[in-house]
Input
Amino acid sequence: MDLNVSANALVPLIILFCFFFYRLFKFSRGKETPTVAGAWPILGHLPLLSGSKTPHRTLGDLADKYGPIFTIQLGSKKALIINNWETAKECFTTNDIAVSSRPKLVAMEHMSYNQAMFAVAPCGPYWRKVRKITTLEILSPHRVKQLRHVFESEVRGSIKELFNFWCSNKNECGYASVELKQWFSHLIFNIVLQMVLGKRYFSAGTVDDEKARRCVKAVKEFMHLFGVFTVGDAVPWLRWFDFGGHEKAMKETAKELDSIIAEWLEEHRQSKPSGGKVDGVQDFMDVMISMLDGQTSDGVDADTMIKSTVLVCVYVHA
Output
C-alpha cells in the first residue's frame, strides 16, 4: 500500500522534473531569429525575391525591418540571412564547421560529380584531403612562383599576336577593331590550361579550333547553369516537371565536360613516361595522377577526384 502511494507521488515529480529541464534547454538556446512574414504556401518567399527589385536590395530592405539576422522560406527550404559583418565573422570562425557544407542542389548533383568537387563537397576527410592537395599544388606561393613564366610568356605572346593583328588590319587612320572580350578570354584559358594541363588551345601555330570551341562553350554553359536555382531546389516534389529544361541542360553539359576532361586525363596517362612537365615543372593534373592514382576516398575513385578537382580549377580561374 505504502509502495503504491510512493509510486503515484513520484510520477508528478518526474513530469515536473522533465518540464523544468525542457524549459531550461529552451531558454539556453537563446532567442530564435525572426522569420519574415507573408510566406506563400509551397513557394514561401520566392515571389518576394522575383519582384522588380534585385534580390540583394530586397534582402537589404528586409534587414532594415527585421534586423541583421533573420530567416526566409525558399520553397521547402529555410534560409538564414545575415546582414552584419560581426555575425558573418562568427559564422566562419567560431561556427565554421556548421556552415562548411553546402546544400545539395540539382546543379551540384549533376555537374559536380555528385558533390565530389571539393568546392561544394560536404565538410569531412575527403574535402580536407582534396582541398589540401589543391592549396599546396596550385595555390601556394611556391607553386605560383614556379609557374610565373607561364603568366609572362602567355601575356607576352598574346600582346604580340594583338600587335600583329593590328599591323595586318589597321585602316587608313591607324585603327583596328578588336574584340577584347574574346582576347582576354583566350588569354585566361591559355594560362589556366597551361598551369592545370600543360597545354594551350589558342595560339597562332597550335590552335585546335574544334576542341577549343568545344571546351570554351562547355565551360561557359557550366558557369551559367551552376548558378541556376531550379524549381526542384525549392520544391522537390515539382522537380520531375523540370520547368525551363534546366536539369536536362545540366545533364548534357556535365556529360560533355566529363568527356573533355576524360580525354585530358587519358592524354596525361599516355604521356606519363615523357614526364608531363611544363618547362620542367609538372602540371597540376600530373601531380594529382601521381598522388591519387589507384586510391579511393569516401567512396570516390581516383579518376572522379582528379576530374572534379581539375573542373574546379578551370571553373574558378575562368
Remarks:
- The radius of gyration is 27 Å.
- The first strand starts at residue 69 and ends at 74.
